[in-house]
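User: Hey, my collaborator sent me this sequence without any context and asked if I could get a structure. I don't really work with proteins. Can you help?
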Amino acid sequence: MLYNALIRTHHITSRKKVAALKRAADVHQCYVLLRSGGCPGIMYVEGRDKVQVEGWVGVVRKLRYKDFQLVTRPSALEPEDGLGEEKEKEQKELDIGVAEVGSVKEFGNFMEKRGVWNWWRKGMGYA
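Assistant: No problem. I've predicted the 3D structure and written it out in structure-token form, which is a compact way to encode the shape of the chain:
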């Protein structure tokens, strides 16, 4: 079972903080997607264990991002309707590390590919 969480901040621009997020993703064995470079800053984290996801979120909290909001607390990932067995198998193969995108639209595309698009839209206040 996979767990995920969603964080929203004012912005993500500090390369030093991004490097700390990358180290934390490796330490806590999580997949992380960042929307960096402008407003809003968005962080999505996914891990095999709730403790791993909570640990990564704790690192983000300590970095004291401006306007830090844990919009969706760490919880079990629930695949959305329409996901076939192949998609569920893909999600079980978790990539470890950090990916960065420059726009909210790109971030949304990644969320759709990971099968959590409606969950993400709800967490961001779009739905």
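In plain terms: The radius of gyration is 13 Å. You can pass these tokens on to your collaborator as they are.
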